[in-house]
Amino acid sequence: MSGEVTDGAGADGPGISARFQFSIKTFTGRYLPVEDRLRLDGVDVEGVEQCILLTRRLCNKLVPTIATQLEENFLEGMPRDVAQDMRQSSARQVRSATATESPVVPGSASPTWLCVTVHIKKFPNGEFLVVFTDDRSIDASMGMTEVNFRAVLDVLHELYEKAEWSSECFPDWFERPGPVEPSQLRLN
Fold it and tell me: What is the pTM for the complete model shown?
């Protein structure tokens, strides 16, 4: 199963072999208020940095695509929203327990480019490959486990909150209401 997200601004370019290939090891997400865009500051295993700009329009299409990919695997005999909520909570716990990477802080000479298409490929083993591209000259790819993919969804949500963007594009199971206070319970 695979998905593709595009903002409609891309043009057909040369084949993938003619594009610069960048393999993201880790990234730090930032909101740029002046541009009203998200920026993923990525670094590869050799320390090379790239800054990838994402528009709100593209992100609003990307979030449901990520959610759809994550919804394909769920525990049988359990409501989907509960199963997804449990898996997302588990991924959050893993993320908070293993957050050892320092934030990526790009240098002033780091290339910055606008992503217009995101390709998502899901492998039979449950892992994902996400490719950000400008549809002309560069592909930035990142391999992820389900836990990593869920962490990306959390990072995007945090950036949406910071940007004060509507989070309507996030699935219902992503934000479940917290426990109800006893004073709010009412029996008829």
Answer: 0.75
